[in-house]
Amino acid sequence: MTHMQEHDFEPIQGLPEDLPEGEVLLWQGSPDWKLFAYRGLHIRALIPYFTIILIWNWAAMFSDGVSASEIFLSMLTLCLAAWAALGLIGLFAWATARTTIYSITNRRIVMRYGLALPIIINLPFRMIDAVDLKVLVADPQNNGFGDVAVKIASSERLAYLVLWPHAKPFTYSNAQPMFRAIPNAQKVAHLLVDALVTAGAVSGYAGKAQVRPVNAPATVAA
Q1: What DSSP element (H or E) covers 121?
Q2: What b/e sequence results for 83-122 when a residue is b if at least 16 CB atoms lie within 10 Å of its CB, and e otherwise?
């Protein structure tokens, strides 16, 4: 695994350098920013949270005999603060999606992401044990939107904070890189597994990769 902290010059968008002879780019994609904000950053959970705060504030001020004009001003201030917070999260999701490119070649995964501190991470296929698929929005026409995570071999270690928000949640001890909120998620997951299996035939890779739909009981072997 290698990682870089700048990409001022990219001969191929999302990649730090020209591909070596024999390496082929199979797929590139980026998160859908709205779905990333909704499911990845949990913006939906903040809406009821802010609603509860507003109701609690109104009830407390009303029970204390505060005048209607003061209650209105306080509620307006809280509403503006809540909308500002939601707006910032949405802006972060949009900027993250705009600056993120996930790539799959016939030899590795490349993740380019980051706002103030851009990072490129290369994950050779030898590091990958399995592929996890979570469908967020089912759509028969484009195989749905979803998250595709890769389980890293136990002998390797990735830092969760370096990968975030492109890490599978709660994998702190051995972070799992994840393509977040991408279109055609099922197609991408199976494409990645096919590439892993093909690489095993030519490079001695053990071929342990499999698609594991985390929101379905069945396991689809490669």
Answers
A1: strand 119-124
A2: eeeeeeebebbeebbeebbbbbbbbbbbbbbbeeeebbbb
Torsions phi, psi for 23 (to 5 deg): -95, 135
Contact 136, 144 (CB under 8 A): yes
CA distances from 22 to 9, 105, 107 (A): 22, 10, 9
Query: Two tokens at 167?
Result: 């890490």
DSSP string, 41-61: S-HHHHHHHHHHHHHHHHHHH
Digit-coded pLDDT (tens) for 170-222:
888 889 999 999 999 989 998 998 999 888 733 444 444 555 555 543 333 33
Q: What span, in angstroms and rounded, lies between the C-alpha atoms of 210 and 222?
A: 5
Return phi, psi of residue 212, to 5°.
-120, 95
Contacts of 44 (CB under 8 A, 6+ apart): 38
Q: How far is CA 43 from CA 17, 69, 78, 133, 214, in A?
A: 36, 30, 17, 22, 22
Instruction: Tell me the pTM.
Output: 0.79
Nearest Cα residue to 155 out of 99, 85, 206:
206
Enter the tokens of residue 82: 């809540």
Please write down the HEC assignment for all residues of 125-179.
HHHEEEEEEEEEECCCCCCCEEEEEEEECCCCCCCHHHHCCCECCCCCCCCCEEE
Which of 161, 171, 169, 221 lies closest to 196 in space, CA to CA?
221
Asked if 199 contacts 107 with a C-beta cutoff of 8 angstroms, the reply is yes
Q: How far is Cα 156 from Cα 210, in angstroms, rounded to an integer?
A: 19
